[in-house]
Structure formats: C-alpha cells, structure tokens
Amino acid sequence: MQRSTDRMRRLKKLKSVTGAQDGVGGGDAAATATADNRTSESSDTNGAAASSGAGGKKPGTLNPEVFKHLDKSGRSEFLKYLKQQLQDAADTPVYDKNGVFKQGISNAIYQLLWQTLRFTHKKDIVLHLLLEVVALHADFPSLIVDVVNILDSETSLITDGFQEERHAFVQLVKDLERVVPESLLKERLEIDTLQEAGIVKNKSFYSKFIKVKTKLYYKQRRFNLFREESEGFAKLITELNQEFDENTTPESIMDIIKSLIGCFNLDPNRVLDIIIESFETRPDRWNLFIPLLRSYMPTGAIICEVLGYKFCHFKDSRTPRSLYHVCALLLKHGVIALNDVYVWLTPNDGSIKADWEEDLADAREMVRKLNLIQTNKKEDEKDPPPPPSVKKFNEEKYNANQKFGLCEALLKVGDWENAYKIIQKLPEQAVVLQEPIARAIADLIHLSVENIYYKKCFKAPAGRRPSRNRLYDDSKLVAKMQAKEFGDLRKYTWPMANVLGPAMHYDTVLMYKLIRIMRKLVVDMGVDSLNGPPPNSEAEQHYYDIMSSLDACILPSLLYLDNNCSMSEEIWAVLKYFPYHFRYSLYARWKNDSYQLHPNLIRRCGLAQRDIKALMKRVSKENVKQLGRLVGKYSHCAPGLLFDYILLQIQIYDNLIGPVCDLLKYLTALSFDCLGYCIIESLTLTGRLRFKDDGTSLSLWLQSLASFCGTIYKKYSIELSGLLQYVANQLKSQKSLDLLILREIVHKMAGVESCEEMTNDQLQAMCGGEQLRGEAGYFSQVRNTKKSSNRLKEALANNDLAVAICLLMAQQKHCVIYRETAAHSHLKLVGNLYDQCQDTLVQFGTFLGSTYSVDEYVERLPSIITMLREYHINTDVAFFLARPMFTHQINQKYDQLRKDDPNAKKLTTTQKLQKYLEATQLIMNPIVESVRPLHSSKVWEDISPQFLVTFWSLSMYDLHVPNESYQREIAKLKQLAQQAAEGKDSNQSKNKKEQERYIALMEKLNDERKKQHEHVDKILQRLQEQKDSWFLLRSAKSAKNDTITQFLQLCLFPRCTFTALDALYCAKFVHAIHNLKTSNFSTLLCYDRIFCDITYSVTSCTEGEATRYGRFLCAMLETVMRWHADQAVFNKECANYPGFVTKFRVSNQFSEANDHVGYENYRHVCHKWHYKITKAIVFCLDSKDFMQIRNALIILMRILPHYPVLAKLAQIIERKVDKVREEEKTKRPDLYAIASSYIGQLKLKTPHMLKESVFHQIAERPNKDSPTNVGAPAAATRSDKLSPTSPQGTRAPSGAAPFYSSEQKSGIKEPEAKAASTTRESKSQRGEGNNVTLVSTATSTASNNERESKQRDLPAPRESQSRSKDDQQEQANNGSNGSRQSESRNRDVERDRQDQHDQRSISSHRSSRDIVRVKERTEAELHQRSRERSQRLEELEAQQRKREKPSRRGGEERIRHGDGVETVDLVGSTDNRHYEEFEGRMRDLSSVSNESNGSMQHRQRSHENIEFEKVDSKRRKLESSTSSSKKVEELVDSVKKARGLKTKERNKDKLSDEERDARKDRKLGRKRDRVDESNSNEHKRRREGQNGEEELRDRERHREKSPRERSHEKFDRERGVASGSRTEERQYISKSARSSRVNY
Questions:
Q1: Position 645 pLDDT exceeds 70
Q2: Does the N terminus or the C terminus of the chain have fewer Cβ atoms within 10 A?
Q3: How many CB atoms sit inside 10 A of residue 255's CB?
C-alpha cells in the first residue's frame, strides 16, 4: 500500500513536469495528440522551432506523423528534433538558457517508449533509436530512466485487460541494460520492478533494505537523560548559566550548543528544555535567550509542546511564576502563539464559567435571604452574624488556575494584546475580578498615562521618585504604550480602563488620575451641559470615550468605595459638563445594571439595602442631624439604592417629606443629581395606578411625590431640566397628570400659589402691584425664593421650555375633556384634570410674567395672533399670556413719543394724557385689526373689535386701586417697625436693620400705590375716549339683546371662570361700563341675563370654575345689593344712567325722565333675581347629579355674603341643603362635608335675614268682593305693569303670592278665569301714555293649611321649568297690549264677561277626530252628553266657591305677616330685531322682548281655534235640533246616579288633600283651556285689526330666531316626544299649566 502511494505521488509529479495526459493506458491516437498539443504549447517557452511537422503544427513541436514512419524517415526526424532542442542549452537537455524546464525532449522520449509498449513498432527499432539518442548528450540516460520510472508507475496501476502493456514494459526494462547503465536502473526504479525484470535476483533484498534504512534513520544515537551523558549536559548547563559579558551574542552560544550536541550526542529536545529552564532562572536576560530560542527552534510549535508538558506537570500543584513569566515573554516577542500554548492550560473554560455562575447564584441567594422575615423566631435564638460584604480572595483557587496566572504574567510583561485575548475567552469580569490581574492592568494604565498626567494635568512634585515597576525598564514597551497627547489615550488607556471595570477600585490613585485627565480633556474641548463638541471631530471621539469609561469603570468602582466623598466630587467635576440626558443614562446603568456584574457588588448592594431600611425606620424630626450624616455616607457610594427606598417610603408616608429633606443636606452634588434622575424614574415606573381605586382623584403616592419634588428642588440646587422636559413630554403625549409636579415646583420655588381658596383680603391685595401681592396676596410670605426662582427661570430658558410648556398646557386644557371622556373616566376626574391644567397654566403664566423681564418675555412669547391662529390657543389663555406685553409696549411707545416731542419737559398733564392715548392707539390698533378675522362680521355688528381687545387686554390692576389693602399692610409694617424700635433684645443692630427694612417696605408700598393711581387714571381716560365706539347702534334694534349676548358669550363668561381675579375683573368691568355711561349698553339687561337662569352655567362648570363663577356672582350681587340698600346711592349711581333706560328711541337718542327704572321697581327686579337664583339652585340640588349638587353648594358658599338675604329663601335653601346632607352622608362624603359647612355658615347669618316687606314693597291683597274674583276657584293673576315714574310713587300690584305657591307644584293648576279678571284689573290701572318695563305678578295662596305647609319647597322637574318659560311667553304676549286705547279695553271687558258666561255652557274641546265621530252619533246621545256636562260644571263651581273663602283667609293672614312675595319679570327673551322698523314708537323692554317669543304660540293657537270654530258651529246646530225626550231624561238620571256612586267611592280612597285638590284643579284647568281657546280666534283677529299686528306677524314669520328661542323650541320638542304616550288628560293639564303660571 505504501509503495503504491509513493508511485502515485511520483506519477503526479512527473505528469506536471512532462505534461503527459493522465489517461488509462493512453493507447489511442487522440490521447497522444492531446498530450502532444499540451507538450508543444508548454515547450514554446524556450523559443525553439521545430522544422518538421505538418498539419499546421507550430514550430518547436514534434509531429506525431514521425512515429508512423519511424522505420524510415521518422527516425531521422526524431533525432533532428532532439538535436534542435539541444541547441538552446547544450549544457543540459532539461533546462534552457533562462533556467526554465523544457518538456519537449522528455515528452518525445515518453511517446517513443509508448510506441513500444503499444506494440506499434518493434522493440529493437526503439532500442536502436535510444542508443543514438544516448549518444547525443551525457544526461540523456538519466532522463530516459526518469521516463521509464513514470511508465513503471503508470503500467503498475493498470489492471483488467491491459496486462500486455505491463509485460511489454518489463521486457523493455530488461533490454534497457544495453542503453543505460544497470546501476542507474537500480538507483531509480522500484525494488519490485527490478525483481520483476530480473535485474535484482535476491529475494531477501527488500528486508535487507528495510534494516539498513531503519539503522540509518530510526536508531537512536542521542542522549536525553543527564545520567546517560552527564559530561555533555554539565557543560551545556554551565555555558547557559554563566555570567555573560557584553560581547556575548546568541550566535556564539548557538555554536557552542551545536558543538556540544554533536560531540556528546545530546538530545536536541532535551537541550531545548534546558535552555527554557535556564531562561526561567534568568528572565532578565530575555534579550539573549529570546534570539537564542528563535534561532535554535524556528518552529514555535515544538517549544509550545515543551512548555505544555511543563504546565501539565504542575496542574495538580502550584505552577511556578517563573514558568508563567517565560511563557509570557515568549508570547510577547512572538516566539510562540497563544492558541498553541492555551490548549495545554488548566482548567478548561467550561469549569471557569460554571464557577462564575455559581458565585453569582450564591450572591443572589444571600441577598434573598437578607430580605426574608422570620416569623417563628424564638426568644433564645440570636441573630446570625451578618455575611461579609465582599467575598475573600481565594488565593489557592487562583493559583490552581493556570490561565489566570498566564494572563497576570502577560500583563506584568506588558503584553496587553495576548492578555486581552485570554480575557475575552472567559466570562465577562471573571478574569479582571481577580485582584492580581486587576492590579496588573492598573499598572499598565499607570504606565500609559504617566507622561500625560504629569505633563498636562498635575504638576509632578520636585522629589518624586520614578516608579520601580519593571515595565518601565522596557523602553520599547514604554514608547509603545505611553501616551504623549490626549489622542494617544484612545489606543491603550481607555480600552484597558473599560476592561478593568469595577475592579479599578483596587487602585483609587489611578481613578483620580483618569478623572482628572477626563476633566482636563472636557475643559479643553470647551463643552458644557448645553453645548456639545462639534460633530465628526476628534473632540467628539474623546467626548464619547470619556462617557464610556465613566460608564464602564469609574461609576461602578464607586460602589466599592465607602465614605469616599472626595471621589464623588471629582466625578461630578467631569459629569457636570455633560447634558442631563447623558448623565441620566449613566445613572440608569450605574443603578440598575452595574451592580449585577460582580458577585461582590451584589452582596454589597444587598447589605446596603438592609442598612438603609434599618436607617429609615429610625427617621424622625429629633434625630435628623445624626441620621443625615449616615445618609450622606451611604449616598457617596450607592445613591441610587438609597434614593429608591427613600422615595418609596415618601410615597407611602407623606409625613416623612420634611425630615427626609433635612436628612439630605449632607449629600454631594453627584448624589443630588442622581436624586433628580431617581425622581423621574419613580414617576415613570409601570405597573402603578395613578388614580385611586374609585377613579375620581389622583393617587396619594403621586401627590406625595409631587410635594417632595417641590420641597427638595426648592431647598437644594438640583438641576431641573430633566424634570421639566419630562413634564413637557407628558403633555406632548396628552397626559396631564404630571402637571401636579410642575405646580408644586412653581409654588415652592417661585412662591406663586395656585390656590383658589383665597380670602377677599388676599384677592384685593392681588389687585395691587408686585410689592403688595408679595406682602399680602399669598397665604405664605414670599421669602427666600429669589435664588430658587432664578434657578427655575434658567432651567426653562436653557431648554426653551417656558413657552412650550405654556402652549402645551393651553392645548391640553381643552383636549383633556374629550380625551378623558373617550377613555370613560369619571366625570369628577375629568373636572379635576381640567382644573389642574387651568390652575397650573395660570400659576405658570404668572411666574413667567413676574420673573422674566418684560423684554425677555416679549422676546420669547409668540404674538397674540400666532397663538390664536397657529397654535389654536383659546382667547382667554392667549390674552392672559400676552397681557404683560401690551402694557410694556404702550409704556415704551409713550416714552418714545414724549422724547420725540421738542417740548417734552413742558408738557402739561392733558398733553401727556394725549400722548398716552396716542401710544395706546398705535400699539393696540394692529391687534384690533388682527382679531377681526376671528369672528364673523355679524358679531362685529353688535360689539366692536376694539371693545373685545380692550376687555381682554386689561386686568384688575388697570381698573381698581386696593387702597384698603395698601393701608392695612402699611399699618402692619408701621407696627412691626415700632416693635423693632422698642425691642429690648441685646442685638440692637439687628433690630435697627429690621426697622429700616420695614420702613423701606412702607416707602415701596406708598410709591407703588401712587403709580397705580396714575395708571388707573390713564386707563379710565382711555376707556372714556373709546366707549362711544364699543357698541354700535343699528336701527330698529330693541333692548340691545344681541349686544348683551355677544358680550356675555365672547367676554364675560370665558373670563369670569378663568381665575378668581378675572372673576372680580369681569364684575368690575361691567360696573365700569355702567359708570362711563356707555351708550347702547343696558346695564339692567346685562344683570338680568346673568342672574335669570344660572342652571346651565352651574351644571357645566368644573369644581374650580364653579368657585370662580361663584366669586363672579358674588361680586355682581355686591353691586346689585349696594344699590338696593340705599336709595341715595341708587339715585347717584343709577338714575339717569343709560344702563337703566327702559325705552329706546330711534328718532330721539335722548331719554326722558320716565324712561328710567325707579328705585322701588329696581328693588322688585332684585327680588326677581333672588328668586331666579333660588330656583336654579333648588333645581341643581334636586337633580341627584354629583356635579350639579357640588357646583350648587360651591356657588352657595361663594355668594353667601349677599345671598340669601330673604328669610323665606334662606329656609328653602336650608331645607334643600339639609336634605342633600342627609342623603349623601354615607354615599358621597365630600358632598356631605360641603353641605354641612354651608349649613353652619348659613345659620350664623340667619339673624340678619330680611323680611319681604323690608326687601321691597309688598303688594296689597285684592278686594274680597271684587267682581273679578267671583267664580274663581283659585287666586291667580296675570302680569301687571307698573310705571316707575308715576306721581303716586311705586304702584303695587293687584295681588301677592309667594314663589313657593301651589302653582309651582306639578299637576296643580289655576283657573284662567281668575287670571283674566286680574288682567282686566291691571289694565284699568294703566295710563294711556305710560310706557313701562317692569311687570309685577302676584298670586294668592292655597286653600288650606295642610296644603300650604306642603308647598314650601320649590319644584325641581325640568318639565315645570320649561312650562314656566311658556307661561312667560304667553303672559308677555297678553301684556304687550297694555298701552292701548280705552276702547280696546272696553271690548276686552265685554269679551271676558262673555267668556265667563260661555264657561258654564260650552263642552270640552275635542280633537277633529272626535268631532267626526260626533256627527255620526244619534241626536239622543248628543243631548244626553250635553246635559251631563252642564251638570258637572255646576257641581264643580259649587265646590270652588266653598274652597274660595279659606283660600282668601290664608292670603290675608300671609299678607299680615309679611310673607307675600312680589316678583318682577324684567325680560323674557333675547331677540330684539324688530325695533328698527317702528320709528317714532316707544316700547318697554318687557313687551319687545316677549313678543317674538310668543309669535310661534300665536300662530299655533290661531290655527287650532279656526278648526275648533268650524267643529263647534256644527255641534251647536246638532244640539239645537235635539229634543228633550223622556229617554234622554232617564239616561241623564242614570248617569247622575252612577256619578254619585263613583264620587262616594272616590271619597273613600285614601287620598291626601293635596292630591284631591290637584285632581279638581286639573278638571277646572281643562275647562278654562277649552273656554279660552274657543274664543281666542275672534279675539285675536279683533285685536290684530285694531293694533296693526298683521304686519308684525308677517315679520315674525320670516325673522331669524335667537339662540334662546331655538333652545326653548328644541326643549319643547323633546318634551313633546317624551310625553307623546301620555293620556289626553295629561295634555289638557299641560295646556292649562302654561296659562296659569306665575310670571317669573
């Protein structure tokens, strides 16, 4: 097998030389031709050309045709070819002149011999030819034998069917003895071939050959044991361990070694081992031994094997350090490769990884046990000793690890590259955790930074000794690793430091060096926390290298350093130059990831957590100082763990906030910065609910954390950028919960409170200047906030967050409602979030306005138009933010105009005022024009853009000077100054300073008050000049309802709920408009619109808005009640003012004396307003809805100083609130608390309540025997108009009825007959030329005492409320004809009498469908029904007469006791569009405002009456034609009997008096309704013909309806749909109710 393999190898080699084809046998011509082609192509390199050849062959190649004619001309051509090949180089036939191998001759001989083997030519011819060839050159025999050797290999491999060629070859070899020498054949050919050819005839020749070969090559003739050749080895050891002089070279030693090996037959491998051992003893002569080993053994693998056997020998014992050292030196100088020697080291990598994971698991288990609580601990058992914080270094285990030892040795010789390869092969931090390896890396880092540290960072002391480390002896290593510039640090220093990681704590000096180098680098780069390095620069690379090193080694190493405060300060000196987001990312890895790298770190952190928990259990106000020092020590090394637990405790126990803030005073700057990150991380933790379980309020942990943030950021200098950016990011994500944090920060740091629970004194102080607001405007004195306020200002400015947060809060304020509602949040929570956005926005805007200079404020804030249009900010917020800019710009323009005037110093006060007005116009006109596109042109027809801008641009500071607040604060300061002067303390200088400070404050307050007075005077002059252009007068405009509507919608309502100060401002501004005698503005109508229906306003408010709305109502009521209390004040401030005009003239703009409201009529209006407020409040309290009840209670609390003032109203409110308190005691405790508080305060006010007669003049009771009252079952009156300027004074109404009367009860109606009679009485009292605005209404009380006692409370249902609105409309329509001629009144009286007569005989109204049925009935049936109806009417009239007497007696009794209530209806609608079309005619407010509301009812009832008349006329014809037959009389008698039985059964029912009266009244109501509608058609036609109402009806049909009309119609439609399934009786009840309501 071995011989065949050798043959194959030789065959392939010769084929590559000769280019012969490797074919099986090669016997065909095609194979030969192919071989010839390859041979000819490759033989052209020598430039020879063959003269012979055909078939287009190239010159220099042998023509295959030669072998066909070998016995003839082919022989000569063959020889000629060989001779030609010899011409190029006669010295050798194998190579040409250029030394390139020639394949031509070898190929020719090869083909010639194949001719013989294939039997193409005879063997003798070939042999003769070979003899001639041999004669050509002396090297041809050798060449021929080589070709034969190839043929031997080829023929020996031929099997199956080709044995003839092998036999031919054997015969050819036998005959070759004649051509080549036999010795040459024996030398070249195989032994088997020689034996086969018979050249070698000895059969044992092969065995002898093997023996000889073994003896020559395999028999050992060298010695590897000392005892075998002691002399030789002794001489070798002596030579290698002698003291070499300087002239000794490795070459000379190598010569000696070779001599000794040759002389004493020493084993070379043992000699190599002796050289390595000699190197171990003298490693300092590495410069001699390294070249010696390299020259002795060029292949490093053998050296590694020798070293590997040595390492294996010591695997069970301690490996000597010298072996590690030698191996490291060999690796360092590249004599051997790491991978070759690494496989010999023990233990394997798998066991090292397993040990590392086991250590980690043990550390985690230890921490887990520390957190366990033992519940079954016995008293005798002692606590186990605490585990060690750091596991001790196991030196024995370390010494058994050869990989660690080799890594240490590599580091000690400075071979960082190979050492790093070993570190990478093993688990992360498993190698560098070993102290020797860590210190070795630290030494290398020292070497790398030595030069640059003492050169650029720290001046070396004069007597500093050089390092004794052997690394410094290697000059090449020093030159290679030592950094000369900062850029060189990137090669070795930073990578080595990052690999070292937390193990750098073993060398704190190195930490200091690296930190100082980092600081020097950062300072030289010129970066700070706001400006980073330029991109794609070398400085940027250094920047991130420093961050990587801080993250990988510096901060984790700090976890090992106990109580090292200086190290923390050094680290902060570098970190403070990085932006907060980079620092926070470092803290995150430091706190959450770094401690998990090492088992020792896990143990240390577990023990630290245990100690921190024990420390926090002892925290109290008494031991703050002692525990504060401990907290400071813990914070130096592990601030993240400390703050996590502290924040957790604060979120659970909010009473720890104060002590904890005091504990933290010993923290370093690094710890404070880490605290800022921990706070943000605590806010962003997932898995915690931010709401309480009920989903109505924020969680306590969030509130506690927010309070802690405000306190800690105020007390200590912690960077705010991260927290502010977090809040901004939350707002971008439409999350407003974290605004609580911003509110606390602004409150604590800037002293700006967002509290809405301010006292009236504080609100008045807030109307003053900055000094007064600081002294008296807040609950806590604004002290020591200058520094913290500036820090907050700088944090906002540095990150451009001031305006961004403002705009985001403004946007979030209006989207939070929709977002939270879509999320199905509780309505209370939605309101709280909305209030939080609002309060924080106001607080933050106030802070910006007070902290930033006006120039800074103007520069940063976008323009008002940009906020309104681009950022989609609402008007209230936009003007709130832009308001400080307006005053500043006006003052600047004013100063500029004064300076530009040549007579600037001689300007009079009037001229200065004109300059100020001019400056105002220049500044505000562009704003006026810019707001014009915000609303449609229709809006600007009612109010001007200038008025809108004026209203929104002013503040309370511009309209009102709080003189009382100034005087009060100055008096306090005087008293304090006097106390300081009279102080008997020993420190007189301190008292003197205090006195001087108080005096300076008084002077500042006086100056501020003076400036504000001047400013308010300028503003009033400005308003005086602009007032005539505020409200535009349009022809035929009635009562200015549209103007008031736009004013309320665009100005008052949005602003009065913005802030508490804005609520006061709105009330003050309305008063200012009134005092300025502004034309086309009705003050009375404005107040009426505000007070008349506050139900929807109260319902739609949040809690904060309800508080502010209540303040607004309180301020408005204060003005109203001040005018109500004193007639002199009323005459002075209201009489002859345009705001109290009741009639508007188009032809003559000047009002007359009788066009104004009188004092007593004004008191009636005030009574009406109090009633309206009561009605709205009762409705809300009875609604059972949380929001309505809460808001109603809040508003009641706010308006308590001025409402209620009537004893009866107070009783009603008290009962309702007490009912709420009882119902909500267990259900909703917050409502219970508010209700209880209000009742307590209301009871304190009870002794000061007024009676009706004191509040306003009570109307006299109508005469008992008056013909108008005859036949009326219940007392009810229609509207009665009073003249405010009648000579007899204020005229009383015809009757009086309390607003809690029976008509307010659902289902109790009043007869129309009484209403009609009262109407006639009131009409008879009117004068022809009297135009009045006020309508007085009075009603009598119920019939019995029990019914009266049950009717004290006001109704709550919405249905009754909407009906009362219909009543107002109908009554106003009836009352609009009050100023008609006497002729029309007489006709009315006659018509009313006819109505009373018809009431007894006309049957009930039927629908058209019923009338059709009546036609088909028999005459007898119709006659019977008419008799029955007549009988029923007589019975009911008798019952009503009986009930009339006690009812009148009850009314007289109430009038005597002063319990009658007079109400005044000022206005019922807001549509005044038809005033312009009646020039020269005068109308009162009531008629004008109500005629439009009644137009729809006029048309509807007219249509119904026309249909009714047609049906009624047919019915009467049928009745007249019927006969009174006996059958009909019998039927009537039977019906009477049946009715009597039913009446008895009905009386037996257990019905209350109230229910029985209600049932009777409902029947009467149906009768009255039928009577009224039967004659209304003729009545109205007659009245319209006389009064010219046809034109009015046409205009009403085509006019545009007001918003209130549309809302009323919509409400009626909804109610109609809801009540569509009710019975016909219920429909009659609703009709009668609309006609019998008291006109409120």
A1: yes
A2: N
A3: 11
